[in-house]
Amino acid sequence: MASPLPSPGALAGVRVLDISRILGGPYCGQILGDHGADVLKVEPPQGDDTRTWGPPFKDGVASYYHGLNRNKRNMHLDLVSAEGRDALLALLAEADVLIENFKAGTMERWGLGYEELSARFPRLVWCRVTGFGTDGPLGALPGYDAAVQSMAGIMSINGEAEGGPLRVGLPVVDMVTGLNAVIGVLLALQERQRSGRGQLVEAALYDSGLSLLHPHAANWFVDGRTPQRTGNAHPNIYPYDALATRTQPVFVAVGNDRQFASLCRCIGVPALADDPRYARAGDRSVHRMALKAALEDAMQDCDGSALVDTLMAAGVPAAPVLSVDAALAHPHTAHREMVVELPGGYRGIGAPVKLSRTPASYRHAPLTPGTRFQD
To answer: Do residues 208 and 180 make contact, with C-beta atoms less than 8 angstroms apart?
Structure first.
């Protein structure tokens, strides 16, 4: 397990005011905090809604909240009140970045719109996370991960071929929007070094959802065919699928002819690589159903775990299908410092980006008190 690191982080000295809630905005703030930014999270008097999104709960606060709000110090302000807005303005005077995801028009109604704040704080980078943007046919409408998965086409290509549209089993649109927000903030901070001016960064769930459609969108742009569900299988290449063995399914990800020939040798059917139906990648994709049956027939007596080791040693990408608890307990997870612990019993997923000189650090557990930026 990773322990707190002494590095000041790549973003040391950057002050972030996170007044967002739910997922996309808070996830952005947590990533910035992991890399050294001083993040002050401002919540309404009743707290972020995700405090109640359980069970499970820890000290009365849902695990969902704990997973998105480390490396922040926490305070409460009632922005509906003039006093709360005055306190926020005092904090903005010291901030480099503002993260918010209120419904479009809310900040303007409070007299805290972009025009007002950019004139008052010209170096401020304002990161706005929205559902659909602020204009256009769907502009200003609220957005939710599952709804955008549905509308952006993601559900239509997720699930078994014979089944119905299926939501991806994690909030992928919210999380990618948070990542896009981080990218936008970093781009704006980099540009500010040249111009001395901040700017508005907008990350919309709808845009992020559409951006995830590779290779399905690319396929449609070329052949005009509506993409279909393919279960675990890749739409363009094969075998790139979960295949049955005697003990457990094994995911095989063959990307070229050499890997396919190695796979065939490892499972005792080397002649399969010379079959004209399967000799080239495009042919394997066309004849995938027959190929899957042939591969699973050859693998029916294999132990799945042992087969994965054999394939990986032969240069064939393969993996066991693990449960979440097994993945988190895997020795390589610990080696990569992808589970972190903080005093008080906090455990969470570590930062996936590794920097050699300024690595991520874990300084504040969720709910650490704070009322101002640190000196």
So the answer is: yes
